[in-house]
Structure of NAD-dependent epimerase/dehydratase domain-containing protein:
Amino acid sequence: MAILVAGASGFLGRRLIERLSVGGYEVIALTRRQVPAEFQKLPGVRWLTRDIAQDGLDVVSLPHIDAVLHLAGATLGAGKDELMFLRANEQTTVRLCQALAERTDRFIFASSQVVYGNPCHLAVTEDFPLQPDSSAYACSKLNSENWLRWFQKRHGGQYLSLRLCGFIEGGGIVDYLIDRGLSGETIELFANGTVRRDYLPVEKAIDVMVSALNYKGSRDFLPVNIGSGQAISAQELATLVCTELQSPSLIHLLDSPSPQGDFVFNIDLASRLFDFSPGSLAEAVRSYTRLRKDEVRRG
């Protein structure tokens, strides 16, 4: 099975191509950056360095492609404006579809929870209202989904949009809690630590992507929420991390409102389509905390 992975050298892409290589897939790994040295000789992986948004994709020399896993694009971060998100996310999506929509009938897109904005709900389903005006990033991700809808309507095939929650390892609140706990500094939590958000180990997201490659269902555009589906408050996370680290850090609960409210996915659809089981979120956070602690010990 030949798979083209766009964004192959990124946060998700590196982990995905390793998994696909081990699984015996033929992989065409597409990246804008220099190919990481440790990935250059992965069995079954052929690297292409190209800026899709700027140059498109020359498909003449490519073999038959059974599926496209589209992970390329920009995420939230400082110094990124509307034009950057337009180019990196939407234009990349359009160019990729223009090149490949007639060569494969299966696209899998790494979308994001940001398309729902700030729903303040503990069971967000795929039919929840979408909020493209919550940020330029959210706008670009939802517009990318709309482009996929268009190409699916025009060319047919199966287009899956995996709306991913935040990752435990993604540099968010869990890393903040661990960093503070390791240094013994006070942990400060908005809204008295009551906000509950959805998180997932990145390896579970990779599990879903590989499972999606074998999904034989609806030939349509289909969004699917991918998260833990488990509600744990910021205060509970902080207590869990500090206990695992045996940290003396104090947890200071602030009355100030949080910029984000509750957000937990309903993952019934993912469980049904992909036999997805995220495991225990609390245990995943404990495991990651131990990993970070061991890394510090090793220096």
About this structure: The chain is about 40% helix and 20% strand.
